[in-house]
Write a structure and sequence with these properties.
By secondary structure, the chain is of the alpha+beta class. It has a single domain, classed as RelE-like (YaeB-like fold). Helix content is 30%, strand content 33%. It has two helices and five strands. It has a five-stranded mixed beta sheet. Strand 2 and strand 3 form a beta hairpin. The protein is globular, with a radius of gyration of 12 Å. The mean pLDDT is 95. Keywords: Toxin-antitoxin system. It comes from Candidatus Wolfebacteria bacterium RIFOXYB1_FULL_54_12. Pfam families: ParE_toxin. This is Addiction module toxin RelE. Belongs to the RelE toxin family.
Length: 83
């Protein structure tokens, strides 16, 4: 089963601002998430219910909706300010 990736407009804008090389790295990471969204790291504490995956030096923060087979990307941010 393949998950559908949803990027809200604010996340799309963040993605467009990235350097081309990093943007491609993030896009490849998103393609991989569509195949296996559980490959990321499950977050805890105030970020419970969210997942994170590396697209060095950035992090993709997302939620998984298993019932609808959807990955909702919440944020794409540099690793130092992602959380």
């Amino acid at each position: 089963m393949q998950y559908r990736i949803i990027l809200p407009k604010s996340v799309q804008k963040d993605l467009e601002k990235l350097d081309k090389k990093i943007r491609m790295r993030v896009i490849i990471t998103l393609q991989e998430l569509s195949k296996d969204p559980f490959a990321g790291k499950k977050l805890q504490g105030e970020h419970a219910g969210q997942w994170s995956v590396r697209a060095w030096p950035y992090r993709v923060i997302y939620r998984i909706n298993k019932g609808e087979l959807v990955v909702l990307v919440i944020r794409i941010a540099h690793r130092q300010g992602a959380y």
